[in-house]
Design goal:
Elements (H helix, E strand, L loop, with lengths): L1 H15 L6 H10 L8 E8 L10 E5 L10 E4 L2 H10 L3 E2 L3 H6 L7 E4 L4 H4 L3 H5 L16 H9 L2 E5 L5 E8 L4 H17 L10 E8 L5 E3 L7
Parallel strand pairs: 3-4, 3-5
Antiparallel strand pairs: 1-7, 1-8, 2-6, 8-9
Helix pairs in contact: 2-8, 3-7
């Protein structure tokens, strides 16, 4: 059995190294090249041709139609009168007492949602939160006068992205257990958001390359022709 699996693996890896695939084909094939025994994450990596000053700056959020399949741990740093509605919205941790835990180095969360009045208290934790991508941001609606709305959106599939210093955006868009159509829906929605986020200063090629992969798998090269704008 192990020899047959090894042969299949070699055949698939040889196949994906020969050509570019449409997003539709890649969303299906990416599941076939996964051999881990757990429900692996399906990831998308997009290399953008943007100005150097924007390479570590382009950021935004997008609501994936089918979520990522991961439980996003949300901390709601809200005053007492917002605690109950934040809990009901799905926040995993609620209350300003968690500021002290952050001060001691606790960051066992994925997203922090807060209100404008609390932001001055968080400015002292820039190094702790900023380096982990946890600092709330009004542009991403993680600083909001209506935190419960933001929490519900995050819990129902809203994710955040940011380009790194090389102009690469990397994000999970689902799990291997997702149907091919669900992965395709998520990938299309993610790509549409990236396209809509094109900086006005970008006049030439915007999307240099797109790859789909899973945890511990090789990457599938996606044809960018459908996304040239």
């Amino acid at each position: 059995m192990s020899k047959k699996l090894t042969k299949n693996r070699k055949n698939i890896l040889e196949k994906i190294s020969k050509k570019k695939y449409s997003l539709e084909e890649a969303s299906s094939l990416v599941k076939e090249i996964t051999f881990v025994k757990f429900d692996a994450s399906v990831d998308i990596s997009i290399h953008l041709e943007i100005e150097k000053k924007l390479q570590n700056f382009l950021r935004g959020s997008v609501k994936l139609p089918h979520g990522t399949g991961k439980n996003i741990r949300v901390l709601a740093l809200v005053p007492k009168d917002k605690e109950l509605e934040s809990k009901n919205a799905g926040a995993d941790y609620v209350g300003l007492d968690y500021i002290e835990k952050i001060k001691s180095g606790w960051t066992d969360i994925d997203v922090i949602v807060t209100v404008p009045s609390v932001m001055p208290e968080l400015r002292y934790f820039g190094k702790i939160l900023g380096s982990r991508g946890l600092m709330p941001n009004p542009k991403l609606d993680t600083v909001s006068v209506n935190p419960s709305k933001s929490i519900k959106e995050i819990k129902s599939g809203k994710i955040f992205f940011k380009s790194d210093r090389y102009g690469v955006i990397h994000s999970s868009i689902g799990r291997v257990s997702f149907s091919n159509q669900c992965l395709l829906d998520n990938a299309k929605e993610f790509m549409n958001k990236i396209i809509r986020s094109k900086p006005s200063s970008c006049k030439g090629t915007y999307i240099k390359s797109i790859y789909l992969s899973t945890t511990m798998s090789n990457s599938i090269f996606v044809d960018t022709k459908s996304f040239i704008i």
